Amino acid sequence: MNITIDRESTTPIYLQIKHQIQEQILSGKLAADFPLPPERKLAESLGVNRTTVFNAYQELKADGLIASHVGRGTIVISTNDGAGNSGSHPSPLLWRQLFSESASRARDSLLGNILQMVSRHDIISFAAGVPAQELEPVDVIRDLQTQVLKDGGQAAFLHTPVEGHHPLRESIVKLLESREINVSLDELIVLSGSQQGLDIASRIFLESGDVVIVEEPTFFCALQTFRAAGARIVGVPIDENGMRMDALKPLIEKYRPKLIYTIPNFQNPSGVVMNLERRLEMLDLAYHYQIPILEDDPYGLLRYEGKAVPPLKALDRLGYVMYLSTFSKILCPGFRVGWMAAPKPVIRQFAWVKQNMDLHTSSLSQCLLDRFCRENYFSNHLKTLNQRYLQRRNIMLRALERYAMPDIFWNTPQGGYYIWCCLSEDVNTTQLLTKATEHRVAYVPGEAFYNDGQGQNYLRLNFSYPAVDQIDIGIKKLMQVIQESVVTTIDEEFPLEVRPII
Ligand code: PMP
User: Fold this and answer.
1) Is the CB of 268 inside a 6 Å radius of any atom of ligand 1?
2) What pTM was computed for the model?
3) Backbone torsions φ then ψ of 448, nearest 5 degrees
């Protein structure tokens, strides 16, 4: 297998490797079952980091061209022998090869797997990132829907402006004021979930090869979205006070990133809160190096104890922060309503891109959520959630104390949804997930939150979704699974599939 690296090229090295292997597979030079060299060996022979080869292989796997099997290593699984249709027999269309490069980069089944798991009733799921079902204010929403349809009639079925239903934008501006964020209506856009904000921000700011700085670990959908845009992702380590500024500065100087992405409150997955000092430091760095900050804050209002720290957006004097939030974690994720507060030129650009995507966010969802805020249900509901989730968090902490082995560590989050667990280094939580789901309990493996295969001995536990009486039972089961698991160290030469099949 012949691969040459061009270090002067603007194409990232992992993509150079990927493209050359892909070309050799599609041209038939590498036939089906051809064994690719182990990551470490190829990295050594090319003089690159092992992570670079790991990323190239991940891309080829996502394209369905190679696969890893225990005992067989990584092999070619697809050749181009049906392509071209040059013979007299028409052959089936090779759909995968027609997809654009950015479409193939968007392939990742982890989120789909998690959503599927949430809908399974036979599993105690600590994997979800959604509110408790029994706390959803169904009766209130039913009444509000009747009112909306009575008062507004068909208006709720018509189009709204791309930027969002005007009354809802007013309600969100008020909500933001309570968090010390003061924006005008034209500095706000309603989105179809904050996930859409991540996607639009990637489209607006990122060219292939641009660098995005993220916390390490971070929200896996953000990683997927940045990857889909072809960005290079650079992780900054975190500690109990959030992203480490001593590590951020040299990375900014080295990589000159296009964007800093941060979840400063009850971070997903670690649950940590960035302290005030670091927020101010991050803003100073952003001002100095002229880098926009994408602040993702779905959990900030879900504080169960301790004192709130102002959002970066509230501290931002110069308009560098784009602030993303959502109704998904406090109300219903199914409404798909989030928002972005940012300087006007950003909002205008967001609106142009959103218009091509979905014209606007669901009118009925927006009308309902506006009523929910206006009639003061929001703050009452939030109070209830903060009491109930504190109780659930405590139940989970107590269960961990009772059942976890002495070499398992976890944090005590003051809010949000997650407890982040660190297991002993020889446990691989991705492999363990299959066994856990056989025992009817699920979590998200740590590896999902890293860009480069790290985090294999971590796992994220959600305490908002599982029923109160299931938390203790589920943690007990999970700890039994961990304890019983034969400690299998992964042979680097033959890595297992990294994505859980559930
Ligand atoms: N950002 C973070 C940090 C999240 O945890 C989530 C949901 N898990 C989102 C964004 C997406 O939320 P939404 O439902 O609004 O798209």
Assistant:
1) yes
2) 0.81
3) -60, -25
